[in-house]
Amino acid sequence: MDFVSDSLANGRRLKCLTVADDFSHECVDIAVDYGISGEYVTRLLDRAAVFRGYPAAVRTDNGPEFTSRAFIAWAQRHHIRHLLIEPGRPMQNGYIESFNGKFRDECLNEHWFQTLAQARQTIAAWRRDYNEVRPHSSIGRIAPARFAEQHRHPGDHVTFNQDSFRITGMAEGGKSRPRRQRSGSLASQSTAAAASLAASRGARPAGNGHAISISGSSHRIAPSHSFA
């Protein structure tokens, strides 16, 4: 997750919270409002979890929304691991940085919003196109929503790979710990899904890595890979 800022034609600032999945490359949500607090973020993630389940972990920067009591309590309540990147190192949350760059170039910079309602409608249309129409070469030239659907299986759980900051689903001691289903965008795919993705790329799978990313910068983001 990350924050991207923009403004209306009258100069009033808008804040966009983007949530993306680096496994399926699906955009989970883009919330647009005048202000977004830590409690606001948790409500959005609870809403996303109704369909997707809760993630095994989230990765964020050290912004006040993600270090607030409301967000930390939410993560603890749902047994979600909260990974904080190092200050000044946005590329540790690289996939969301890359996604935000596309979002700004292709959507925010191309429109002049008169009202909050217009901004929400335009951004929602861009998100639908990104998820359901646009093919991505890294997932076999298909749309992210279709890829996520193909790898959404009941009973899947995820693990954490500490070296790459990825969420990989092993409990302490190396034993797998059963979790509620965590599919698609907030980091949740099975080992088989990771293996099939690696095989489709002609590469050996590097562990069971899937992750969710959240970050909190307010401007343009540079490309990399991670939703961790």
Task: Explain what the structure shows.
- With 228 residues, the protein is α+β, with helices and mostly antiparallel strands.
- It has 6 helices and 6 strands.
- It has helices spanning 38-52, 69-77, 94-106, 116-132, 144-150, 191-200, and strands spanning 2-7, 13-21, 27-33, 57-60, 81-84, 212-213.
- Strands 1, 2, 3 and 6 form a 4-stranded antiparallel β-sheet that branches. A two-stranded parallel ribbon has the order 4-5.
- The radius of gyration is 17 Å and the shape is globular.
- Mean pLDDT is 74; it is low at 156-211 and 215-228.
Average per-residue pLDDT, rounded, comes to 74
Which runs of at least 5 residues are low in confidence (pLDDT < 50)?
156-211, 215-228
Report the sheet-strand fraction: 5-15%
Count of individual helical segments: 6
| Most strands sheet | 4 strands, antiparallel
Outline type: globular
Structural class: alpha+beta
Q: Cα-atom Rg, whole angstroms?
A: 17 Å
Number of strands: 6
What share of residues is helical? 25-40%
Q: What gap, in angstroms, lies between the N and C termini?
A: 9 Å
**Series of H and E elements:** EEEHEHEHHHHE
